[in-house]
Amino acid sequence: MLELRSISKSFPGVKALDNVSLQFAPGQIHALIGENGAGKSTAVKIMAGIYQPDSGQVLYDGRPLHFRSHRGSPKTGIGIVHQEIQAVPESSIAENIMLDKLITYGRTGIINWKAVHRAARGYMDMVGLDFPPTAAMKHLSAAHKQLAQIAKALAGHAKVLLLDEPTSSLTEREAANLFRILRELKAAGVTILFVSHKLEEVLELCDRVSVLRDGRFVGTRPVAEASRRELIRMMIGRECAEEHLGRLDVRRDREMLRAEHVVRRGKADDVSFALYEGEILGFYGLVGAGRTELARILIGEDRLDGGEIYVRGQRAHVRSIADSLYRYRIGYVTENRKEEGLLLKSPVRTNITITIWRNIVNRLTRFISGRKEDAAARHMVGALQIKATDLGQKTEDLSGGNQQKVSLAKWLAAECDVLIIDEPTVGVDVGAKEQIHRLIWDLAKKQRKAIILISSDMPEVIRLSSRILVFKSRRIVGELTGVDDPSRTYEEISTEIGHYLA
Question: Phi and psi dihedrals of 323, rounded to 5?
């Protein structure tokens, strides 16, 4: 049904796709995988008409497609769910889902809002988005915005559905619901292109898998004949270990952060915990369980209705993110790097050093030292292996994984003692994920940082944490200790987590 034939596409300083040919059969779920910068998103955007190829053709049912813009793809029957959240924040969920298909009273042009809300409600139910259709998009979490994007694509009745990291902000339960929907669409003859960094999802859901590396096509395999090890080798050209990284030397006599009976209406319900030097404390739970909400209270983004917060044993009054950083040396890597974590139009240098400007400014001239700024940025680029043409490159031009590294780098540059890291590897390939995992572990093990790791990726939170708190209904419902004990298996720990969430 859909084919890329000898497609090439270049951007300034990089060849994103180099003579790539791919075929996608009707009624199949076809995975496209590769490291960040391999060309996956570029290929998807060419199929959707967002980018035009430098050479080659896109064919649909054997006929060449010539999109003048992305508006042509829905008319052809091609729908897309972007990796980056595409939403009108001030508009309602229903308006975002039905934006290009608003229902009117006949030819009057007057919108039938009752019908719009009813139609949107049907698609929201399909993806498990349990909110009023009239609720504003800006009040939704990143995960719920992702579900709204999927609902919008389903509302278009697409014959070809392009999904670019659709589960990046979803929990396992929400992803399982999405997979059920995709299998139903497949049975109805819809062609589905599934871009994901999560190989477990690819092996569970897809019929075929194609691999890109450095903008070139590596190969296609039937999923039934592909192994995880082979796919990783095709993606990165080497083996990649995934065992637990080892035991952490947690100093229980050195408390770094403590919450006592923290209450915030609708966000935290009598939450208490302590975090120690050298510890990675995992926060696990379903989206909306209160993990991110608690993090935002700890950094002063939301005020307390009750309870106390202590930093290094002293009662803290964290009134803002600036307070948390400069007074208490607490950093927060947000789950939503696009909207909150980065200045996308600004250079890599600016994004990395923005947290240390007050330390490198000349007290007399009030100018920031360019030499010190470059040195700090260059150090972090090297330490995190950020792939950028230079320090002046716009952050929006980096791949998703490298943007995530920049988001992490700015807090590392500030040398925070406590780091709250929210969904650190969303949209990150297996090679970069391994680097980020080792970096986080080294921060606790070698640099003695105290880390709260919020993750919807159960293998990730089990692999990195020494202790895990399980959240449900804005409360802590369980605690798992000794997670880094080599005698404990993944199956044992994941089963215990499941019992708390049941």
Answer: -60, -50
- Please report, for the chain, how many H helices and E strands are present, in that order: 17, 20
Angstrom distances, CA of residue 315 to CA of 256, 257, 328, 388: 11, 10, 11, 42
CATH number at residue 278: 3.40.50.300
Q: What rounded mean pLDDT belongs to the chain?
A: 88
H or E element: which one contains 375? helix 370-383
Reading the block at residue 83, the tokens are 């990796």
Q: Which of 69-78, 177-186, 269-278, 411-420 has the lowest mean pLDDT?
A: 69-78
Query: Per the domain annotation, does 438 fall within a domain?
Result: no
> Collapsing DSSP states into helix, strand and coil, what is residue 477?
strand
Q: What is the mean pLDDT of residues 255-279?
A: 96
Within-domain flag for 443: no
Range of the domain at 491: 242-329+416-428+448-502
At 367 the pLDDT is 87
Q: How many CA atoms lie within 13 A of 35 on its CB side?
A: 22
Does residue 185 sit in the same domain as residue 212? yes
Task: Please give the sequence-ordered ranges of beta strands (E in DSSP) within 62-158, or none if there are none.
Answer: 63-64, 78-81
Task: Determine if the pTM surpasses 0.90.
Answer: no
Any domain includes 347: yes
Of residues 429, 439, 340, 321, the one with CA closest to residue 380 = 439
Alpha-carbon span 351 to 414, nearest angstrom: 12
Among candidate residues 394, 415, 436, the one where a domain is terminated: 415
Contact 81, 153 (CB under 8 A): yes
Checking if the pLDDT of 85 tops 80, the result is no
- Report yes or no on 194 lying in a domain: yes
Q: How far is it, in rounded angstroms, from Cα 426 to Cα 22? A: 26
Which residues have CB under 8 Å from 262's CB, separation 6+?
A: 268, 270, 271, 272, 294, 297, 304, 306, 307, 308, 309
Residues 250, 289 within the same domain: yes
Per-residue pLDDT tens for 276-306?
A: 999 999 999 876 789 999 999 999 999 999 9
Do both 255 and 212 map to the same domain?
no
Q: How does pLDDT run across 194-211, given as a tens digit for each residue?
A: 998 888 889 999 999 999
pLDDT digits (tens, 9 = 90+) for 401-412: 788 889 888 988
